[in-house]
Design goal:
The structure holds two protein chains of two kinds.
Chain A: H1 6-29, H2 38-77, H3 84-122, H4 125-131, H5 136-174, H6 179-188, H7 192-218, H8 223-256
Helix pairs in contact in A: 1-5, 1-7, 2-3, 2-5, 3-5, 3-6, 3-7, 3-8, 5-6, 5-7, 7-8
Chain B: E1 14-25, E2 28-39, E3 43-47, H1 54-61, E4 69-74, E5 77-78, H2 84-91, E6 94-97, H3 109-113, H4 115-119, H5 124-137, H6 153-165, E7 171-175, H7 183-200, E8 203-207, H8 211-219, E9 220-223, E10 228-231, E11 242-248, E12 251-257, H9 258-263, H10 267-272
Classes of the chains: A mainly alpha, B alpha/beta.
Chain lengths: 257, 279
Amino acid sequence: MALSSPTLVLKRNIAAAQDYYLLAARSVTNVFRRPRYIADAIQQADLIGVGSLPIVVLTGMFTGMVLALQSANTLNRFGSLPLIGQLVSLSMIRELGPVLTSLMVAGRNASGMASELGSMKVTEQIDAMRALGTDPSKKLVTPRVLATTFMLFFLTIISDLVGLVGGYFVSSVLLGVDSFQYWNTSYQSLTFDDVFMGLIKPVFFGFIISTVGCYYGLSTTGGTQGVGRSTTQAVVAASIMILIVNTFITRILLGSI
Amino acid sequence: MPLPENLSPDTIHKAIIFEDVAINFEGLQVLDGISFELKRGETKVLLGIAGSGKSTILKLCLGLIKPDSGRIHVLGHDVTAMTEEQLFELRNKVGIVFQESALFDSMKVRDNVAFRLLEEKIPEKEIDDRVREALRFVELEHTIDMFPSELSGGMRRRVGIARAIITQPEVLLYDSPTGGLDPITSTTIIELIMKQRDVNKSSSLLVSHRLQDGFMLATHYYDAQTKHMKAIEGQLARDLHTTFLILKDGKVIFDETVAELAKVKDPYIREYLFLEPVA
């Protein structure tokens, strides 16, 4: 394989970042411009939201359970086992619920979007759509962005709740913590800022997952091999961006708390 | 959004005008200052070896890609100066049949053919009637509820033609519509293109690798009574409004009628046409 010059590589990366920015911006401005594809957005919400429910429930449940198991040992040493509900609820709602849910949805849907749009790109269906007078960014991208952003918000709430139930199951059945005490400390320890932080994150993450998935799909070249490459790149890029943006959001919101 | 008013001077008689158009892909000069015109009602067959820029010309016509230099007028509008938003309106007047059909594989044949009408929010009853009419034109009405994956390659091309003609566009672009098909199916496709030319009098650009496609179009006409094509039998004077354009190294080396093509002396074209070199 021929080596590319560093300047060329830099130029390509800057051009890719610019294309991504333009696509992401257009996906938002399209919301305010006709035609609007509401039926497509609802269909995507069903595919992305309802379709992701099983993996989100399982992720939330087992994360809550393992969180309770891991923290029980440390808390027990200080005689603070009754505070396990507080630890599970704060960890799940502020951090693990939004991040793990987003990573799971990224794995499922960023790849799905990249492969679907990538296949359309290499079989000239995207060009056909443009040739038929339809804007692919309005018809394909904006409905996916709206659906993912909207549904990830609710998936995160479900994941948080199921995580708390998982934590409760371990605390109550395996560790013998009183039910009322678990739920009381879980609830009492939460403030508005915790809930706000936990619910603002999925909005950003949903936007990242959908725009990254669509960007890699629409920029696919190189036939079926290219589709595979785009799919992998979309999941990797979306996951890394989620973790980076999560750090920034946490820092900004903790700074204001 | 209104289309720009920068109308070309000869928009009444010319459907497409290329003026000194050049484009390169990653340093490779694909088109190097080509100029040609497609008159209204004319069918122009684009010939050339693989990679000579034939399909690129069709994409340039629709504004799917932009040239590095030169101007392209389509139905009186300078597509090189139009935004993507403005182009969407112009594209409604131009139909295209893609090389591999490019049907939307998640949609049934009905929705593929009706795509433009669905976007325009036309009543369902009217959509059904027009879809059936377009599918009847390509003799595939029975496939209306099928998915593209259930169709053969030739049937997909014919559905592609139905999708392109459903709004009766003023210009039709065919990108290798017979590529990879058997001779019988290819003839069926060419007959449909001929029918569209002779019945609906549309202007078209046809990209092809097969010389016989062009010759058939130039020497046959569609007989509406027998519903089959017929050879013009020596009456070359009968104007079928079909011309040939040959590309070589990004330049136009021939742009004339079939009669002129038969008399050509250029060794490259004669070799391309499998003709004996001129002594």
